């Protein structure tokens, strides 16, 4: 076995045959190949990993081998190979440092020994019945020698499926300590990468001596295992990123599996003192301590590092691509420590302060909201100045649509309206947390209460709507919930000052941290993965944002609606004046709002009538672009552009007009194409209206009123965190009540379930009690 040998394998479709060669590159200078990125400094943030051009993927023994440690995890390896090929085809240089030769060889040698023993026993006894056979302890270097060729053949077969070439390189510690061999290795790897070949590197375990303790030279890491090999190789090759896959999620602040263990999203060189290391992996000679040491060495050398789980069946298929895309996977090693707390720390701070907030007296929570309402008007110049900066930047970049710019803009009148709405919330907060909903005497001296309590930690994600921040802050305060806010960067200045005002109001009762504004580079998808820390997500923004969050938040409930496809149905018995007024307001008052009309349904009998003509004239005057539904288009000789879909949220001065034959057909149309948000009937026939209101399954259903009334402030809720089209918990405009849940409180005097069995002495009463009745020693807010 030659330590400096390479084995280049081409797919079967290549005109070249498999080539084995030994190349000496003694006359090639070290580090001669220019890179796309100047090396020497690692990436500071995860989001920058998308810029990585040269990547080393280290596959630990636990990733490569099966659970029985004999043989390879073929399905897992196939998935990893597919990801490496995908990233390579996107223009990145990929190298693999792999374990597995020992496990593969162990499987092979065991099979040979069993076969040999069975043959000898059969010859010796002359019988087919074999005695129990015991296997000798297999020496690791012999296993490596037997397994290397099979391991490489497997990689070759897998990469060949994607027409990707691979090359095998075996190294030992001496290859890095000998300058000549280092130059040879470096030049070989650069030549392979230049030809878009994926090098597969492993320690030559067949000849490598056992590691010597404390043998590291100053500034040099010894090749004791594949962790140190990957780190050394990444630095030597000036790789941008090292991905180390193991059988743990990443680095924990205490041994994984212990009660208080927390996964570290980011690890900084100065944090070693806070880490307690556990046992090693089930296979391999390294452990987490070795991984951290290797990672820090690579980081110091200018290579970013992520340690992640490569064995979890739910993430293995995309773990490498997720890391390269900058998603929050595993532990990211960074030399740049942020000035503020991490989002995990912010969530913990909010939860702790939120519990104190929930324990305050209702009057105290009301005081906080009133102070915030005062601050909105007292500091309006400061708020509007920050908003002006955001608006100017948004206009100069040209990235926001007119509708989004309108949402971003604040004014004195908006701030005054916000202040009024907050005072409404302050009043309603007097009777929120701790309200008794039900009281039952279960048995003698055993009484049960159902009371309202906060949900916990809310995550509100909003875009281009800074006025959302004080609204949801007030609702969170009133309901005793902790709040995590993630606003769009287009409103960064406005959000910052509004959050400062919210915390200023909270500080009067020592709960400043109950509301946190996420200002780090957290991706929305990463926030949606904090299922152990966040109890409810509320998106405020475009339908695309809501859909993305609903898709990403697989383990956290999402309160909201993905679309606001609102309908106005004009019945044949509608009032002309009411119809014109309602349609104009529903479409033109605020076209970007989720409660704006998107489809106008018109009874067939109204076609070619003065009412219909007036509707069309009004829409033309208001510059509303009309799209014709299929039935409406069939009535016209020259129709407007036919609608592409009847399930469209325009969010602008556009709408669809469609014709229906009856109220029932209107209801059926809305059920088929609507979004269960808000729908309106305009008619003077009370029976028709009541049937519409009863049959239609939408969160808000109106009779002779604009769809724009679907709003928490207009409903008298003070404000809303959003409008929900869900079927459970909360529906329609979600105000204070929608941010509360319940808990059951049982007060007894030593009763047990056994007391109520057939042999017991007690019986159930289950008597309903008035909620206004106060239990001894218990204060109720009812």
From TrEMBL:
Protein name per UniProt: Delta-1-pyrroline-5-carboxylate synthase
Superkingdom in the source lineage: Eukaryota
Occurrences of domain Aspartate/glutamate/uridylate kinase (ranges): 53-309
Catalysis performed (reactions): L-glutamate 5-semialdehyde + phosphate + NADP(+) = L-glutamyl 5-phosphate + NADPH + H(+); L-glutamate + ATP = L-glutamyl 5-phosphate + ADP
UniProt-listed Enzyme Commission number(s): 2.7.2.11, 1.2.1.41
One record GO biological process: L-proline biosynthetic process
Domain Aldehyde dehydrogenase as annotated: residue spans: 342-629
Subcellular localization, as worded in the UniProt entry: Mitochondrion matrix
Taxonomic lineage from the root: Eukaryota, Metazoa, Chordata, Craniata, Vertebrata
GO cellular component, one term: mitochondrial matrix
Keywords: Amino-acid biosynthesis, ATP-binding, Kinase, Mitochondrion, Multifunctional enzyme, NADP, Nucleotide-binding, Oxidoreductase, Proline biosynthesis, Transferase
Keyword check for Transferase: yes
The protein's assembly and partners: Can form homodimers/multimers.
TM ranges: none
Pathway: Amino-acid biosynthesis; L-proline biosynthesis; L-glutamate 5-semialdehyde from L-glutamate: step 2/2; Amino-acid biosynthesis; L-proline biosynthesis; L-glutamate 5-semialdehyde from L-glutamate: step 1/2
GO molecular function annotations of the record: ATP binding; glutamate 5-kinase activity; glutamate-5-semialdehyde dehydrogenase activity
Species whose genome carries this gene: Cyprinus carpio (Common carp)
Function: Bifunctional enzyme that converts glutamate to glutamate 5-semialdehyde, an intermediate in the biosynthesis of proline, ornithine and arginine.
Record Pfam families: AA_kinase (PF00696), Aldedh (PF00171)
Protein family membership: In the C-terminal section; belongs to the gamma-glutamyl phosphate reductase family. In the N-terminal section; belongs to the glutamate 5-kinase family.
């Amino acid at each position: 076995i030659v330590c400096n040998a390479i084995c280049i394998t081409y797919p079967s479709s290549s005109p070249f045959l498999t080539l084995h060669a030994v190349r000496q590159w003694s006359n090639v200078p070290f580090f001669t190949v220019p890179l796309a990125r100047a090396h020497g400094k690692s990436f500071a943030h995860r989001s920058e990993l998308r810029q990585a051009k040269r990547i080393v993927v280290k596959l630990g023994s636990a990733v490569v081998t099966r659970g029985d440690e004999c043989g390879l995890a073929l399905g897992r390896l196939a998935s990893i190979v597919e990801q490496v090929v995908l990233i390579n085809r996107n223009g990145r240089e990929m190298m693999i440092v792999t374990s597995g030769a020992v496990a593969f060889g162990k499987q092979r040698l065991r099979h040979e020994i069993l076969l040999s023993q069975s043959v000898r026993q059969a010859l010796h006894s002359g019988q087919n019945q074999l005695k129990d056979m015991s296997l000798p302890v297999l020496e690791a270097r012999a296993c490596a020698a037997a397994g290397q060729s099979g391991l490489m053949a497997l990689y070759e077969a897998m990469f060949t499926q994607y027409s990707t070439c691979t090359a095998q390189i075996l190294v030992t510690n001496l290859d890095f300590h000998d300058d000549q061999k280092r130059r040879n290795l470096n030049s070989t790897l650069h030549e392979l990468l230049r030809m878009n070949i994926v090098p597969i590197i492993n320690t030559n375990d067949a000849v490598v001596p056992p590691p010597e303790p404390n043998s590291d030279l100053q500034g040099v890491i010894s090749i004791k295992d594949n962790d140190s090999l990957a780190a050394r190789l990444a630095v030597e090759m000036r790789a941008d990123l090292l991905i180390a896959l193991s059988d743990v999620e990443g680095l924990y602040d205490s041994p994984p599996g212990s009660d208080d263990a927390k996964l570290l999203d980011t690890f900084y060189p100065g944090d070693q003192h806070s880490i307690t290391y556990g046992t090693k992996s089930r296979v391999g000679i390294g452990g987490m301590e070795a991984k951290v040491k290797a990672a820090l060495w690579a980081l110091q050398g200018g290579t970013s590092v992520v340690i992640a789980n490569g064995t979890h069946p739910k993430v293995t298929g995309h773990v490498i691509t997720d890391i390269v895309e900058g998603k929050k996977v595993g532990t990211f090693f960074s030399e740049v420590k942020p000035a503020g707390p991490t989002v995990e720390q912010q969530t913990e701070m909010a939860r702790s302060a939120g519990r104190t907030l929930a324990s305050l007296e209702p009057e105290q929570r009301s005081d906080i909201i009133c102070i915030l309402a005062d601050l909105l008007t007292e500091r309006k110049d400061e708020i509007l100045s920050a908003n002006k900066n955001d608006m100017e930047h948004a206009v100069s970049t040209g990235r926001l649509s007119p509708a989004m710019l309108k949402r971003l803009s604040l004014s004195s009148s908006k701030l005054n309206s916000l202040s009024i709405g907050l005072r409404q919330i302050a009043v309603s907060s007097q009777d929120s947390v701790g309200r008794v909903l039900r009281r039952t005497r279960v048995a003698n001296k055993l009484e049960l209460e159902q009371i309202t309590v906060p949900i916990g930690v809310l995550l509100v994600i909003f875009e281009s709507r800074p006025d959302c921040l004080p609204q949801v802050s007030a609702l969170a305060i009133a309901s005793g919930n902790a709040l995590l806010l993630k606003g769009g960067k287009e409103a960064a200045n406005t959000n910052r000052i509004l959050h400062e005002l919210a915390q200023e109001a909270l500080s009067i009762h020592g709960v400043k941290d109950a509301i946190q504004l996420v200002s780090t580079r957290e991706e929305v998808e990463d926030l949606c993965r904090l299922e152990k820390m966040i109890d409810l997500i509320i998106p405020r923004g475009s339908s695309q944002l809501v859909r993305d969050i609903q898709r990403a938040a697989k383990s956290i409930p999402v309160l909201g609606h993905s679309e606001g496809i609102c309908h106005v149905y004009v019945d044949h018995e509608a009032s002309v004046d009411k119809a014109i007024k309602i349609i104009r307001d529903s479409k033109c008052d605020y076209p970007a709002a989720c409660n704006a009309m998107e489809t106008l349904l018109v009874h067939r009998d109204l076609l070619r009538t003065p009412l219909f003509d007036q509707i069309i004239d009004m829409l033309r005057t208001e510059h509303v672009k009309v799209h014709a539904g299929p039935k409406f288009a069939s009535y016209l000789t020259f129709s407007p552009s036919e609608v592409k879909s009847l399930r469209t949220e325009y969010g602008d001065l556009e709408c669809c007009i469609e014709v229906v034959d009856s109220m029932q057909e209107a209801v059926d149309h809305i059920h088929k194409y609507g979004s269960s948000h808000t729908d309106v009937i305009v008619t003077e026939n009370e029976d028709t209206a009541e049937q519409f209101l009863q049959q239609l399954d939408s969160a808000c259903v109106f009779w002779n009123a604009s769809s724009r009334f679907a709003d928490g402030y207009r409903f008298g809720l003070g404000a809303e965190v959003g409008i929900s089209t869900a079927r459970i918990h909360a529906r329609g405009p979600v105000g204070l009540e929608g941010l509360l849940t319940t808990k059951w409180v049982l007060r007894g005097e030593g009763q047990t379930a056994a007391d109520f069995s057939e042999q017991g002495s007690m019986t159930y009463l289950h008597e309903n009690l008035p909620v206004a009745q106060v239990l001894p020693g218990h204060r109720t807010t009812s």
